[in-house]
Amino acid sequence: MKDFDHLMSVWQEQPNKDQLSVDDVLKQVNKGMSSISQKLLWGVAIMFTSFIGLLAAMLFFVFTSLLTYIGIVILLITLLLYSFVMLRDYRLISKQDITINPTEYLQSLKEYQKSRAELYGWLFYLYVILLSAGLVLYLYEVLQNSTILFKGIVYGSGALWFLFCTFYLKNRFVKNEQSKISDMIERLERLQNQFD
Fold first, then answer.
1. Which range of residues forms the domain containing residue 69?
2. Which positions, given as ranges, span the membrane (predicted)?
3. How many domains would you assign to the chain?
4. For residue range 28-63, what is the model confidence (pLDDT) as tens digits?
5. Whole-prediction pTM value?
6. Sequential DSSP letters for 111-160
7. Is residue 23 part of a domain?
8. Is 143 part of a structural domain of the chain?
9. From the CB of residue 41, how many other CB atoms can be counted at a distance below 10 Å?
10. Is the backbone of residue 44 left (phi > 0), alpha (psi -120 to 50) or beta?
11. Around Cβ 191, how many Cβ atoms within 10 Å?
């Protein structure tokens, strides 16, 4: 009998599975998605402002080299391309409502995470290549009368900045965002399993 009492006390001391509060999970998911959508909107705003600035430079400054205009056009196309991708992502995540169909929302969140990781993987490299090419062509005429040392400093610091963004900031940004989305997916899956 003593063993049975001991077994019962051990059984009762077992931690209960944490039950998730539906309201808390929904608030956390909405907060996470609004954070991601705000970052996307800021990105679009910055890209649009840069686009307007470059377009104004192309229209109001007179350049003698065709390479400078080609560089600016490449930069403009790059900014537009990346802006449209960010705007598409914003529309995709902001139009969904978790309260209407949570299962469909969870599935679309998983698909969004996968497509975003794949798209931003190769798209970022295309973005960096086009941005670098555009800047090199633009700076060809702008730095034409500069000393070789100054040109080396400008091109070298630009190359270091792109390498830093490509190999450090990109990975950190993607990892952080993927972690946030994975956390939201995990919470929604736990909540779904709680009701199954």
1. 33-195
2. 40-63, 69-87, 119-140, 152-169
3. 1
4. 777 888 888 888 899 899 999 999 999 998 899 888
5. 0.77
6. HHHHHHHHHHHHHHHHHHHHHHHHHHHHHHHHTTTS-HHHHHHHHHHHHH
7. no
8. yes
9. 14
10. alpha
11. 19
